[in-house]
Amino acid sequence: METTHLSDNIDETEELKVTFYPELFLQRRIWILNFLRKENVTRVLDVGCGEGQLLTPLCQPAPWLTPPPPSILPPPETPSSPDDLVPSTPTYNDDEIPNLHLTEVHGLDISSEDLAFAMEACAPPKHVPDEGNSSPGFRSYTAGVQRWEELICKVWKGGLEVINEEFVDMECIVAMEVIEHLPDGIFQAFAPVLLGVYHPEFLLVTTPSYTFNERFLPPNAPRIARSGYLDPTRRTDRIFRHSDHKFEWTRDEFKAWCEETAKEWGYVVRQTSIGLPLQKDPFGRDEQLEGATQVAEFRRLESMDNKTREGKGRVRVKELGITGQPHEALAVYKHTANAVAMKPKPFEDVAERVILKMEEFREAFMRMEELWFEADIATLCGGWIEVLVRAIEECPKLQLKRDVDGIRKGRSTWSVELIGGVANPAQYWPAGGETNADCIPADWSPVEDPEEIWEESDFGSSAGVDGDISANSSEDDGIYDSENDHVGWRGKSGWKGAVSKSPKSPKSPKKANHGWSVSADWGAVEANWGDVQHSAMSSTAGWDGDESDDDTTS
């Protein structure tokens, strides 16, 4: 009996199908956001920010404040149940991914066109949730998230080779899909400026893996089968993913650069890769090739003094003889906090409002976070969700349910019971077969054929978390489209020299996203609600997936 292998019947003159989920540009962003959460970073500089795809989630507010001090909320005198331990400082989400509580965000790029969108993305929202709506049954959690902490966001135009004194001693610097676009002269200033002069506590770098590029072709495929771009510097005969890439490093080359750079500037580095394809490689190379994107986290060591790093960096930049225009602050935004932040009302007032809300909604049970996003409840708590938890625990008419079938669950599953309450949803339709038109809700829209509501596309498809619908694929991050016979790799338009572009049709207008993003503070996968940026709809995002006229579908 013959054995069938995955590699059987593969045309060696065609590229292999490679898709990612989430899309590769999202996986890069997720990796960065998760690191920032883990390290509780509060001050970030995004070098090569492009249209602001990373700045957008960074500027979104955390849904609640960090836990209050004991002076505001002392530990409970008795445990909530015999099995509970009294925490020294009560916290609501200490067992799950923490929220980001940023106070300062900077974006830097050289592209005026991209920065125009970055400024729009970083601007404070023009509309605030309507806290005065008193309509019966109105649920304000649909209006967005309130801001409880002040944030300063600055968008700068300039080259990374030029020193900006405001970036000295920055807590964390991010260079997402940047270094591969830098001309050699500018690249020589990358480490001296970022790790030397600015000496952040953390530096995060992502760049394409040339080693992974083998995944697009069978082992014995002819060179002509690989679509892409020849090395524009002519230093190698490699085929790159984007026309503006000055290099694409193999796994060993990237590791060598990381280790050498870390040693020179007094850092320790952890290097790995992300972006594994959904498909198994027919030729069994997955473990060997690893992920499509190489990532590195540099962590500052105390063995070298910061003044030494800074002085060494300034000398090195001066020796390079690179000149450039000083950075220009195109926009400075101040996101103000709610005036009642950190000013909670008594527990009795909070509990009374919870009871009123549940009675108004005719709900005997409600999720904790559903109650929190009622604007008036969060306002009474001063932005501390722990105050809401304590108010519920101390109210005899309410019961906090933190387990399901006797098993303690994470906070996202916590619910609140109104003791004696009866779940009785509002009666929109008359009983007994009546058909009084006056009973029809004002916002009800008739549909001639109910079957039209559901379409085949509603099932089994993947809704892109940036608002687009995609079947586990992207047009940008090395994702092969078998129907259109291409692999799309898109880079950035910033930090690069002049590139000749063939005439193409104008791009469609772009919108900045002013919805609120779960991704910035709530979990590993992003979800933007509201107007979706044009760049997000096409899965393009500056250097983490640029919408470039000189890009190709290869």
Automatic annotation (TrEMBL):
It comes from the Eukaryota. GO terms for cellular component: cytoplasm; nucleus. Residues 66-85, 450-554 are annotated as: Disordered. Its cofactor is Mg(2+). One of its GO terms (biological process) is RNA methylation. PANTHER family: HEN1, SMALL RNA 2'-O-METHYLTRANSFERASE. Belongs to the methyltransferase superfamily. HEN1 family. This is Small RNA 2'-O-methyltransferase. It comes from Cyclocybe aegerita.
